[in-house]
Write a structure and sequence with these properties.
15 helices; oxidoreductase activity, acting on the aldehyde or oxo group of donors, NAD or NADP as acceptor; five-stranded parallel beta sheet; oxidoreductase; Aldehyde Dehydrogenase, Chain A, domain 2; seven-stranded mixed beta sheet; 19 strands; Aldehyde dehydrogenase; Ald_DH_C; Ald_DH/histidinol_DH; 475 residues; Aldehyde Dehydrogenase, Chain A, domain 1
Amino acid sequence: MPDHLKFYINGAWVDPVVPNRIPVIDPSTEEVFTEISGGSAVDVDKAAAAAKAAFRSYSRFSRKERLELMEACLAAYNKRYDEIAEACAKEMGSPIGFAKEAQAWVGQQHFMATIEKLKTFEFSEKRGSTMVVKEPIGVCGLITPWNWPLNQIVCKVAPALAAGCTMVLKPSEIAPINALIFAEAMHEAGVPAGVFNLVNGTGPEVGQVMAGHPDVDMMSFTGSTRAGTIVAREAAATVKRVCQELGGKSANILLDDVDLDSAVRQGIGACFINTGQSCDAATRMLVPVSLHDKAVEIAVDEANKQTPGPAFAKGTVLGPLVSQMQWDKVQRLIQAGIDEGATLACGGTGRPDGLNKGYFVKPTVFANVKPGMTIEKEEIFGPVLSIMPYDTLDEAVEMANDTVYGLAAYVQGKDIEKVRNVAAQMRAGSVFLNYPDMDFYSSFGGYKQSGNGREYADWAMHDFLEIKSIVGYGG
């Protein structure tokens, strides 16, 4: 691995134009373990220029050439798989087993799904005497978050490559090392110079510059709704396409015929996975009034099995939150739940017993949560579940949809037709029925303030393509 202080631009590792070091903190220990460079507008200029120059040739690559390149990228990724997982454990506190089985794994799977769909993707369609073609949009600015870093990097890089685009990636400055290893894998795979570029840095100094840059044709952003609106505003002046995957406050509706024990226990997993740091986490569990108290009892029992601990410690289920800022936010919201009258069933403020250092939080369950409470409305991004009783199914649907977000929803029940009927009423981009396995060929994205693009496999490719009609093309 090259120096963490370098950027990857035009096929080479280069120094920033203006030195600016950013510490990278191990959230399990709160200690700085390395530094990266923070970029500036001049670094973005260099990367965008390289991508623009490379677009002229890469956009003309055949499907066969793109497939061969992406297969090489996947092979290089697999070679660095363990290093990528270890970086996720170190810089974001992901338990090492989870880092290998989920964090690094999802990047691999997204590469595979996109490659498979590229094989049969239709780039042209004849309509009468018109040929409608889908062409690469150009230079793409990619901004990715820290919580599922490889998921989001590959969800953007793979379809951009498949579509024939060139790109500049700005990974999160909080968890950037996995992205540097990824960039090295791209280089080892033989990605042509300028097709893939990486500039580290903060949102204001790099991300916003990318969004407003005249040589960037499209922005793909994953992160908070607040930051997403900034990216969209900066992009507006150049009328570039903006695709966003933003926040969420997903409801998990348990129907009255549900296997309560199984549904609640799996619901804890759907909420607490990745220490609750998932935009589509099932953070609001809606249960019939008659089942509420039993559901709380089961939830507390399961939550208490979610052992917090350092990323590399044996037996850790919940790693730390990623930063002091995230820890402070989650503490504030747990306190708000207590202050506003929700029943604290387990957990609460402060660190778990025996963990005096690191951004650790107690697995927390609130009962009797009512619509309008802060913990019911705000995205918490920690292992905090809100259990809400409902009287009728219509009321549950209304409560579930009463949010500014619309990324995901969950429905559990034995009567599949009833489950599907509820799913049809959810105002969300993805609805998960009875805790299905992850499907890398589904679409992923949100309604309302959860965003406006779609990712995964060929769904993502559409966002990286322009449509051209060649009228009078003939027979």
